[in-house]
Amino acid sequence: MKILSGRLGGRTIEQPPSRSTRPLSEKVRAALFDVVGDPEDLVVLDAYAGSGAAGLEALSRGALLVEAIEANARAARSLQANARALDVDAAHILHQQSVESWLASPQQQPPSPRYGLIIADPPYAQLKADVIGRLAVYLTDTGVLVLSHASRLAAPELPSANLIKTKAYGDTALSFYRRS
């Protein structure tokens, strides 16, 4: 898998040696950034990060900082190795825990809007609208939450965010939300 654009464009990243992660394809990542634009000077949250492809793409395209949340230990090791290999580990923070644990941690209380972009790519079978909705409260006023989900399913309603649009790319759909 490759970084598509920006200062790291063309560099390759390794995928975790596990079938428990499903990376966003290059086509879907390209579409995501075509819609939201380059995250220049934004702080980005990459939830359910897997290999970190989406967050590393954001750094390549000008994000100031990426925080990634990944519970799977193998995927987290792969993500850290990718950040080191790309020499962006100083601008990349990994939280090796579940999104639910991250949300419940004392450091996240009370929730404060600090992310200009949140990318949530949960395993399709584990998509929980209430959890994704709890992430939306961390968006800045102009921030966007992008949720990847199966295209055969409707975009979930989130308790704290309004759906802007949904776009399908084969089996994957991206739904874009703003904080309510």
Description:
This protein has about 180 residues and is an alpha/beta fold. About 25% of the residues lie in helices and about 25% in strands. The chain is built from 5 helices and 7 strands. A 7-stranded mixed beta sheet has the order 3-2-1-4-5-7-6. Strand 6 and strand 7 form a beta hairpin. The longest helix is centred in the middle third of the chain and has 13 residues. It is globular. The model has no long low-confidence stretch (mean pLDDT about 95).
Provide a brief overview of the structure:
With 180 residues, the protein is of the alpha/beta class. It has helices spanning 26-36, 53-60, 73-85, 99-104, 129-136, and strands at residues 43-47, 65-69, 92-95, 115-120, 139-150, 161-169, 172-179. The termini are far apart.
